[in-house]
Write a structure and sequence with these properties.
mainly alpha, 7% strand, Four Helix Bundle (Hemerythrin (Met), subunit A), 2 strands
């Protein structure tokens, strides 16, 4: 039986989990690449890139928690459904586009 997410039609929990895992693996690969280039890299740039990737990894972790508690796919601000197309592109996103623009 396929479990669809309550607020994100046409996106199954399995699909969301796979997308989050892919994003996590991609970010971990980026961190490894930064570490490998360390002797030749600009230290300030390297620190900024590492910090940005670590923030995304935290967002991915938080999205996994929302998936587990059933709130995945619901905007953390206005509580409306986040469009499935947005979740397919940014599976760790916590806000709809309108609310994201207001918090950014």
């Amino acid at each position: 039986m396929t479990t669809h997410l309550g607020r994100a039609p046409n996106l199954t929990k399995h699909d969301a989990l796979q997308r989050l895992e892919h994003e996590r693996n991609s970010r971990l690969a980026q961190l490894r690449a930064i570490e490998e280039s360390a002797p030749h890299a600009d230290k300030d740039l390297q620190e900024a890139q590492t910090a940005a990737i670590e923030r995304v990894l935290e967002e991915i972790e938080a999205a996994g928690e929302r998936l587990a508690d059933g709130s995945y796919g619901t905007c953390g601000s206005c509580r409306t459904s986040i469009p499935v197309e947005r979740l397919e592109i940014l599976p760790y996103v916590r806000f709809c586009v309108g609310c994201q623009q207001r918090v950014s």
